[in-house]
Design a protein that fits this description.
Radius of gyration: 20 Å
Strand order of the largest sheet: 2-3-4-7-6-5
Order of helices and strands: HHEEEEEEE
Shape: globular
Structural class: alpha+beta
Number of domains: 2
CATH architecture of the largest domain: Beta Barrel
Helix content: 10-25%
Length: about 130
């Protein structure tokens, strides 16, 4: 069976570029479906609150991007995926329950955390999505 890229182009050297583009397009459409809503690059001061052994704890950080359903935040505290937290927008003091759905790398300023908001107020970010 011939490679699909070879049937799309007769120019030497373009097959790899076409295949990469096709693979990227498939990835983008799948990723868009998984996320469920658009994202906006926005740095918002946030706090993450949680309870450990009956003690209320809090760590402050910032977002890298936001959406109607959640955010990617950097916080100087690592958590386990699935952990239930409370996210506070420090700009307007609105808070919402959240679940950690992804944890990335630990950088200089903290952990990358993918947070999914549970029943967020439409005013949580102060923007219309």
């Amino acid at each position: 069976m011939a490679c699909p890229a070879r049937t799309l182009s007769s120019n030497p050297g373009t097959e790899e570029k076409i295949m990469a583009l096709l693979q990227q397009t498939n990835f983008d459409s799948r990723f868009r479906h998984v996320r469920g809503s658009g994202r906006l690059n926005s740095r918002v001061a946030v706090a993450v609150e949680w309870t450990d052994a009956g003690q209320n704890l809090r760590a402050e950080g910032y977002t890298v991007d936001i959406s109607a359903k959640g955010c990617l935040a950097v916080v100087p505290q690592g958590f386990n995926v699935g952990q239930k937290l409370r996210l506070v927008n420090l700009t307007n003091q609105i808070s919402c329950d959240a679940v950690l759905v992804w944890r990335g790398h630990e950088g200089r300023t903290g952990w990358e955390l993918g947070l999914e908001l549970q029943e967020p107020s439409p005013d949580f970010w102060g923007l219309d999505f």
